[in-house]
Design a protein that fits this description.
Elements: H1 7-29, H2 53-60, E1 65-69, E2 72-77, E3 82-86, E4 100-105, E5 111-113, E6 116-117, H3 122-129, E7 139-143, E8 148-157, E9 160-166, E10 177-181
Antiparallel strand pairs: 1-2, 2-3, 3-4, 4-10, 5-6, 7-8, 8-9, 9-10
């Protein structure tokens, strides 16, 4: 027997292995861009902010995990590296009418907001945004929550709030995380 442990731990480890393999294949094959436009353009993840769980399922499908993000329910699509966070706290059941407030991260080939995609450096971000917004330089700060130094950048873009995180030089390193949210929707608890 190659595996020792209880069945729930085995399922958890297999799910983690599947997630890692799925992300790897997604990045290698560049085949995981969900589409819902008639011309097969990928749907930017931020387009679903303010939309419902049912609308997210129509774009990304039903293969997600119901998990928590800062006390709120979220839909985690592990094969895409996308987490969609619901407004208004934790929900025991995700009904199709619940509204999405946040989009967290995304796969390299999935558009996030406008021309912003995952794995961009700060210069790439400037090129993607063009002259729509004047961006400050990322700030190098200590994060109490993460117990480390990191570069952050927050700004408003197309009516949404955007926050980016880098662990190393943003001029040469792609961002690690992007969070996009609608400030007019109820606070994520």
């Amino acid at each position: 027997m190659l595996y020792k442990g209880d069945a729930s731990m085995k399922r958890k480890n297999l799910r983690l292995l599947w997630t890692i393999l799925s992300l790897f294949l997604c990045l290698v094959l560049v085949a995981c861009s969900p589409t819902a436009h008639e011309d097969d353009r990928p749907v930017p993840v931020a387009d679903l902010i303010g939309k419902t769980v049912g609308e997210a399922k129509a774009v990304f499908g039903n293969d997600f995990e119901h998990v928590g993000y800062k006390g709120s329910s979220s839909m985690f699509y592990s094969d895409l590296g996308i987490e969609l966070v619901l407004a208004g706290g934790w929900h025991d059941t995700l009904t199709d009418d619940l509204v999405l407030k946040y989009a967290v991260s995304g796969a390299a080939n999935t558009p996030i907001l406008g021309d912003i995609t995952r794995h961009m450096t700060y210069p790439d971000l400037l090129s993607a945004i063009g002259e729509e917004v004047t961006l400050p330089e990322p700030t190098y700060v200590y994060s109490d929550m993460n117990d480390r130094m990191e570069y952050t950048l927050a700004f408003e873009y197309r009516g949404l709030q955007v926050k980016l995180l880098w662990l190393t030089d943003p001029q040469t390193t792609p961002f690690l995380e992007i969070v996009v949210w609608d400030p007019t929707l109820p606070y994520v608890q």
